[in-house]
């Protein structure tokens, strides 16, 4: 049986949420299923998981600074967008979702979202009060209207101890959603 992501390139965007540690398992699972995974991180994400962790898991350079380039052309965002079969932002903070909704491009993830030719999937993770705030709900509707695929969060216990929606979606759900987009 052919692995579902054989010869597929997934760019995994990791933002500054406590759920960033789940992106490690996500990267590993995509690789087990045959994908090549390249991780892009916001500066805030590095407070939760280090780039070296993702580099060790994926065996690829980790991109975390828009002024730093691993490509001869110096344009990581263009090169990554050209080779990606899927851009998955997991976890996605309220801040990142707002930037996507309004076309702001001030970090490598938001820049990539604007240059991506492939599907872009967004996996929110945040406190339930933030998730249900009218501005966040409006921004999530707007990114869907712009063509982004939204993988809704689960209800569960959050890092702060609250219980409600905002818990990052189960990894199996994320993987199945990614399969449907490639």
Features:
182 residues, alpha/beta, five-stranded parallel sheet, two-stranded antiparallel sheet, 8 helices, 7 strands
How would you characterize this protein structure?
- This protein has a single domain (21-131, 142-168), classed as Rossmann fold.
- The chain is built from 8 helices and 7 strands.
- The protein has helices at residues 20-32, 51-58, 76-83, 94-102, 108-115, 128-132, 134-145, 171-181, and strands at residues 9-14, 36-41, 86-92, 119-124, 149-150, 154-157, 163-167.
- The strands form 2 sheets. A 5-stranded parallel sheet has the order 2-1-3-4-5, with helices on both faces. The chain has a two-stranded antiparallel ribbon with strand order 6-7.
- Helix 1 packs parallel to helix 2, helix 3 crosses helix 5 and helix 4 packs across helix 7 (134-145).
- The chain is globular, with a radius of gyration of 15 Å.
- The model has no long low-confidence stretch (mean pLDDT 91).
Quick structural overview:
This protein is an alpha/beta fold.
Q: How are the secondary structure elements laid out?
A:
Layout (H helix, E strand, L loop, with lengths): L8 E6 L5 H13 L3 E6 L9 H8 L17 H8 L2 E7 L1 H9 L5 H8 L3 E6 L3 H5 L1 H12 L3 E2 L3 E4 L5 E5 L3 H11 L1
Parallel strand pairs: 1-2, 1-3, 3-4, 4-5
Antiparallel strand pairs: 6-7
Helix pairs in contact: 1-2, 3-5, 4-7
Q: Please identify which CATH superfamily we are dealing with.
A: Flavin prenyltransferase-like
Task: Let me know the number of strands.
Answer: 7
| Category by helix and strand content | alpha/beta
- The arrangement of helices and strands along the chain is EHEHHEHHEHHEEEH
Biggest sheet, in brief?
Answer: 5 strands, parallel
Ranges with pLDDT <50 over ≥5 residues? none
Could you say how many structural domains there are in total? 1
Q: What's the shape?
A: globular
C-alpha end-to-end distance = 17 Å
What is the top-level CATH class?
A: Alpha Beta
């Amino acid at each position: 049986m052919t692995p579902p992501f054989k010869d597929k390139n997934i760019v995994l965007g990791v933002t500054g949420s406590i759920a960033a540690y789940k992106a490690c398992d996500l990267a590993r699972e995509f690789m087990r299923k045959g994908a090549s995974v390249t991780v892009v991180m916001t500066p805030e994400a590095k407070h939760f998981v280090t780039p070296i962790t993702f580099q060790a898991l994926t065996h690829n350079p980790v991109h975390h600074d828009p002024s730093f380039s691993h490509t001869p052309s110096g344009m990581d965002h263009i090169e990554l967008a050209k080779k990606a079969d899927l851009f998955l932002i997991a976890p996605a903070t309220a801040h990142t979702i707002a930037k996507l909704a309004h076309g702001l491009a001030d970090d490598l993830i938001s820049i990539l979202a604007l240059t991506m030719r492939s599907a872009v999937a967004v996996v929110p993770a945040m406190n339930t009060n933030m998730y249900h705030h009218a501005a966040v709900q409006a921004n999530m509707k707007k990114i869907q209207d712009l063509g982004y695929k939204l993988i809704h969060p689960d209800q569960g216990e959050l890092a702060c101890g609250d219980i409600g929606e905002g818990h990052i979606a189960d990894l199996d759900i994320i993987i199945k959603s990614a399969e449907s987009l490639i």
